[in-house]
Specification:
By secondary structure, the protein is mostly beta strands. It has four domains: 105 residues, Sandwich (Immunoglobulin-like), CATH 2.60.40; 93 residues, Immunoglobulin-like (Sandwich), CATH 2.60.40; 154 residues, Immunoglobulins (Immunoglobulin-like, Sandwich), CATH 2.60.40; 104 residues, Immunoglobulin-like. The protein has one helix and 32 strands. Strands 2, 4, 5, 7, 8 and 9 form a six-stranded mixed β-sheet that branches. Strands 18-24-23-20-21 form a five-stranded mixed β-sheet, with no helix packed on it. Strands 27, 28, 30, 31 and 32 form a five-stranded antiparallel β-sheet that branches. The longest helix has 6 residues. The N terminus is likely disordered.
Length: 533
């Protein structure tokens, strides 16, 4: 990415809906193409770029351009974070469109992230053939689908270890006997930066294994046993036999680059590491619309994933408008647009749509002839001149210009019976489990009500948004609720809400009211005040 022009604008939206969510950018500098209807060019006096660094609460004019002189705006982010962008068109009469930038939906939202994850291996110990690894990761925008734990025996190739991705984590696994082992932990963030750490495993297999008597008990590693499952008292999806382990704050449970299941379901298609998609034409392979076979024979297709893939934009619709700009436009203009799509990160490409006499933005339909619509799509747009000339269609192994993650499935969320906090008076520990491959940052809200249908009152409030706004909480699986003094009721219904980055929302409400009056009355200061007559 870097200083390169954003060839395909980050302006993805369903017809009549607001633009899709945040695009991640791994450089502080960005060139934002100026996009307007060519027929209006003679009416435009100037174009103004407005930027907001506080999610639309305030806007500042960042740059000014004209159609004759400028084809893009330069923007340099002063610091990492989320920035909103809007362009105001001023005509020669001084009229502005949009008239009020504060009331207009942002045309583009960008998360600038220029720092790579910091990965540390806190310890790597071996007992016999069992290795225990403890790691710590510092990263604000992790892509958990690209978390890897691997080991190498005697300096050979790296072997993946399936484990739960998290910032502060640990796991145990078995290795071949009599080998020297090195472990490696790596994580790529949403902007494409990768951090990793490597460490040798302390201890030798033979010495430790031989020191154990056959009659000695096997001592499990502390912290690996699962607690007894709490009862499920509300949620979406079937109640689990035992609650799944609490996921990290951003739960991205599936990597489209490495899974055999092109659907965006919560059912894993196999190990999260080291599994590659099937060849086209085999069960589970990407579905190609009827009449549009793969351009080339899969024999000889590069098995590797192209480098520098752009981060996917997550949307919860199956059709969207795609804006683009035209380079090297000749006198014959543009006669046709061919949209090419890859379901395997550029390994193979198929022509998806052909649009005659195109005009930006293009309407892209992903649901026609496509049974498994959810998942990541790589997109390229090939333009043909009015004289019939065009550039080459994308080759196997060529990186997409844009990646779109279609996620139309709401999160799975379940709420468990709360328990008293043994360390704090008048405090309940509220517990839940939420899972989604695209969980948002701080995706949870918790509310209470006298009845199962509300009205709902936030358990935690967002002070900056007013006392009636629920505060977004991280997906930690629990929250200590200290009941206010003079709480109006002794039983309440609880509701937990989870959101993903595509905009899907799921709720879980307790089936029955929950007791929140934890006081146990006690008789004190006993004194006889008279006879019983």
């Amino acid at each position: 990415m870097g200083l390169g022009t954003v060839t395909l604008l980050g302006l993805l939206c369903a017809p009549g809906q607001a633009p899709a969510d945040v695009t991640t950018w791994n450089s502080p500098s960005m060139k934002i193409p100026i996009d307007y209807h060519p027929s209006k060019r003679g009416e435009i006096r100037e174009l103004l770029l407005y930027v907001s660094s506080d999610q639309g609460q305030s806007w500042q004019q960042q740059a000014t351009g004209t159609p004759e002189r400028d084809s893009f705006f330069n923007f340099n982010a002063p610091a990492d974070g989320v920035y909103w962008f809007n362009m105001v068109v001023v005509d020669k009469a001084g009229r502005r469109e949009p008239a009020d930038v504060f009331k207009a939906a942002p045309a583009l939202k960008v998360l600038f992230d220029t720092k790579k994850p910091v990965v540390q291996i806190a310890s790597a110990q071996r007992v016999g053939d069992d290795v225990t690894v403890v790691w710590k990761v510092t990263e604000k925008n992790p892509d958990w689908s690209k978390f890897r734990l691997e080991y190498s025996a005697n300096g050979t190739t790296w072997t993946p270890v399936q484990t739960r991705p998290e910032l502060d984590g640990s796991t145990s696994f078995r290795v071949p006997a009599g080998t020297n082992v090195t472990v490696r932990v790596s994580l790529t963030d949403l902007a494409g930066h990768m951090g990793e750490a490597t460490a040798p495993v302390a201890g030798t297999a033979a010495a430790v294994a031989n020191s154990r008597s056959a009659s000695d008990p096997i001592i499990p590693v502390q912290g690996t046993a699962d607690p007894a499952p709490p009862p499920v008292i509300g949620g979406t999806g079937p109640a689990p036999i035992a609650p799944p382990p609490s996921p990290p704050a951003t739960d991205r449970g599936r990597d489209n680059r490495l899974t055999t299941d092109p659907r965006g379901t919560d059912t894993p298609a196999g190990p999260a590491v080291g599994v590659f998609p099937p060849a086209p034409g085999t069960p589970g392979a990407p579905v190609i619309p009827p009449g549009d076979p793969l351009r080339s024979d899969p024999v000889g297709v590069s098995p590797t994933i192209p480098a520098n893939l752009p981060p996917p934009q997550v949307i919860n619709v199956t059709s969207f408008k795609l804006a683009y700009e035209v380079e090297d436009k000749g006198a014959s203009g543009v006669g046709k647009a061919e949209v090419y799509v890859s379901r395997d990160e550029g390994r193979t490409w198929a022509k998806w749509q052909t649009i005659d006499k195109p005009d930006s933005p293009l309407l892209i339909e992903l649901s026609k002839g496509n049974r498994d619509v959810e998942g990541i799509y790589g997109v390229k747009v090939l333009l043909q001149s009015g004289a019939g000339l065009s550039r080459e269609a994308p080759k196997p192994g060529e990186a997409p210009d844009l990646r779109v993650d279609v996620d139309i499935t709401p999160p799975v969320v379940q709420i468990y019976a709360p328990i008293p906090d043994s360390t704090q008076k008048d405090t309940m520990i509220l517990r839940w489990h939420a899972h989604d491959r695209n969980l948002a940052t701080d995706p949870m809200t918790i509310e209470w009500a006298d009845g199962p249908k509300g009205p709902w009152t936030p358990v935690a409030t967002a002070d900056s948004l007013g006392s009636n706004s629920a505060k977004r909480l991280p997906n930690t699986g629990s929250y200590p609720w200290r009941l206010p003094a003079n709480f109006p009721t002794h039983k309440v219904y609880l509701k937990v809400t989870a959101r993903d980055t595509a905009g899907n929302v799921a709720e879980a409400v307790t089936n029955d009211p929950v007791l929140v009056d934890l006081n146990k009355p006690a008789a004190v200061k006993l004194n006889i005040v008279g006879s019983g007559r």
